[in-house]
Write a structure and sequence with these properties.
The protein is α/β, with parallel strands linked by helices. It has 26 helices and ten strands.
């Protein structure tokens, strides 16, 4: 049978997910694989676009084929390429619906907000006009279908099937839901962002008759020839006026810069295009979109025609040197470039890279000053994350800081940089107020919250070890943040002081409720080699195990009668222990929701104190 030629259209999302178009991911497709890194990149791109004056955003391409499988009657198209994007978009649509529901807004014609919810419903649910039957408009890969159905039915995603697709669905939905609730926190903001998403975000869509034809098209689009990629185009636009004699050197060093950055994590920074955008921040102190990077650099070149820096040979040498530095900063293991960036690395942040790169270029030879600046930058990133400040606003801060570091070139005094950053405790109080509110609601069962709980306790524990002069190779912040694995028992993990299993026992006081058990005040960091059998008994019966814990912060949970060394042991440790008691550290002599709330307040005070110290305040 002769196949029709491919149809290529640019659909905005409301157009694509319309009429009788229904989509399923074929069984031969791989699992749903997007994780935090891809979700964070998508959030940054969308947040930036929603705030811009641009009238469209191209999310990428998908390839769909007429469905020839057994489900052909139910689903019109098979998704040959694009299941990661489409699955994630469905999670995002559901996150918007949930956020509207939090404001008491459902589907209907009553007002603009209800109409947006109705449009989200229409996009996610296909109604067969001939018989009135309804079904999900999009069916993900088989491994993800059970949890996706529960999400579609607004059920709690507590128990997840042990497969990667289900885990990623749960974690990514929680991540996107938190982002939507935090950034678009009024019905008006929700409606604005949702409409921008539905009507101005586009997918280039290739439609073919069969999956065999689709695979042929996919191979041709992705694997044929040696296309002029965006890096080559950027190089041409930047250096088109360079002397011909310099082109061989430019090509070589530009290529070397690309090779150095290739494979860097997060993926967002792994290109020369990103590097050129990052290098602009200290020049402008403001955001420059990717499509305007070459234009902005050309303007800088024209404004400084006699500058030795911008001679083609010198500038491409700077690009290569900066690529090597950026690659080293991005390494996951601690090194000279990133030792004091543990928070930013742990949370896979990207906003800090340009300002850290400028700090290295400006004062890398003064290691003490450079590490102090990294601590300030890292603390600001962490504060933004815990205060749910929003990546776009943090970007704005980092752009200004990049230029401030450039302007302070030559100074060896950290206070000069802090003044240029505009840092003050009063300015940060509103953010810390939001952090305190979030501390009350961080939930161990939510993967995003759990990561924040772990970081907060690790930061506090490491600070306590340093103050007690007990820090060793196993209690650095890097080690405390390492996830526990079966093959290595020399790690730390979160432990419930009051075990969650005790809630279902007949002796549990139902008036206490359930939520407090998974909050930060009822959690601690416990070394894997410590006696974990105590996790199934009452907190009072764990006291002797806490007393011999490897971390002083966890030892503080022991009843004073079980931990005499804290009162009359190592001089520094006992002094720090007394200070922690003064600050409100609780112990398990008595343990209930009120005591756990007091422990939450103690954790927050210690967390705030450590961040202020890292910020130079």
């Amino acid at each position: 049978m002769t196949e029709n030629r491919p149809s290529i259209h640019d659909f905005h999302l409301s157009e694509l997910l319309n009429g009788d178009r229904t989509f399923m991911v074929p069984t031969y497709q791989r699992d749903y694989a997007w994780q935090e890194e891809q979700i964070e990149a998508l959030k940054v791109d969308l947040e930036e676009y929603f705030k811009s004056q641009d009238n469209y955003y191209l999310l990428g391409q998908i390839i769909i084929a007429g469905n020839q499988s057994g489900n052909a009657a139910a689903y019109k198209y098979s998704v040959v390429d694009g299941q990661q994007r489409l699955t994630t978009l469905m999670l995002l649509f559901q996150a918007f619906k949930s956020a509207f529901s939090d404001h008491g807004i459902g589907a209907g014609p009553a007002n603009e907000h209800s109409q947006v919810v109705s449009e989200l419903d229409r996009i996610m649910v296909y109604t067969n006009v001939s018989n009135g039957n309804t079904q999900m408009r999009f069916l993900p890969c088989p491994a993800a279908q059970p949890i996706y159905q529960r999400l579609f039915d607004n059920e709690v995603l507590a128990d997840v099937q042990p497969n990667n697709s289900s885990i990623h669905i749960k974690e990514n939905f929680e991540n996107l839901s938190s982002w939507v609730r935090d950034i678009y926190n009024t019905p008006e903001k929700l409606a604005f962002a949702a409409k921008r998403l539905l009507y101005t975000v586009f997918l280039a869509t290739v439609t073919v008759d069969s999956e065999a034809q689709a695979l042929s098209v996919f191979e041709k689009i992705n694997n044929r020839g040696m296309p002029l990629n965006s890096s080559d185009l950027m190089k041409y636009l930047l250096f088109q006026d360079a002397p011909a004699v310099d082109f061989e050197s430019i090509n070589t060093k530009w290529g070397q810069a690309g090779e150095v950055l290739f494979g860097s994590k997060p993926n967002a920074i792994a290109s020369v295009q990103y590097l050129m955008q990052a290098l602009l921040q200290p020049e402008t102190g403001a955001f420059v979109s990717s499509k305007d990077v070459h234009r902005q650099w050309k303007e800088i070149f024209l404004a400084s025609p006699s500058s030795a820096r911008f001679k083609a040979g010198n500038f491409v040498e700077e690009i290569l040197s900066s690529a090597n530095s950026l690659s080293a900063i991005a390494k996951p293991q601690p090194n000279t470039y990133n030792h004091n960036l543990r928070g930013a690395v742990y949370f896979n942040a990207v906003q800090h890279y340009p300002v850290v790169l400028e700090a290295w270029k400006t004062c890398g030879e003064n290691q003490k000053l450079y590490q102090e600046l990294c601590s300030v930058i890292d603390a600001r990133v962490v504060l933004a994350l815990f205060a749910s400040e929003g990546s776009q606003y943090l970007n704005t801060v980092m752009w200004k800081w990049s230029k401030a570091i450039r302007d302070c070139r030559g100074s060896e005094n950290l206070l000069d940089f802090i003044e240029a950053f505009g840092i003050s405790q009063n300015a940060f109080e509103p953010l810390f107020g939001r952090v305190r509110a979030n501390f009350d609601y961080y939930d161990y069962k939510n993967s995003k919250d759990k990561k924040r709980i772990r970081y907060a306790l690790a930061l506090i524990a490491n600070s306590v070890e340093q103050k007690a002069r007990r820090e060793d190779a196993n209690s650095t912040l890097f080690e405390l943040l390492k996830p526990p694995i079966r093959t290595n028992t020399n790690k730390y993990d979160l432990d419930h002081v009051f075990a969650s299993s005790l809630v279902s026992t007949g002796t549990y006081d139902a008036s206490w409720g359930r939520d407090w058990v998974d909050r930060i005040g009822n959690l601690t960091l416990l070394h894997q080699s410590d006696n974990r059998s105590a996790s199934t008994v009452l907190p009072q019966n764990k006291s002797n195990h806490y007393a011999v814990s490897k971390l002083l912060l966890t030892q503080m949970l022991a009843a004073p009668t079980d931990a005499p060394a804290l009162a009359a042991g190592e001089a520094y440790a006992s002094r720090v222990a007394n200070l922690l008691r003064t600050e409100g550290a609780q112990d398990v002599s008595v343990w209930n929701p009120e005591i756990a709330e007091a422990q939450t307040e103690f954790y927050f005070k210690m967390f705030k104190s450590e961040l202020l110290s890292k910020l130079g305040l």
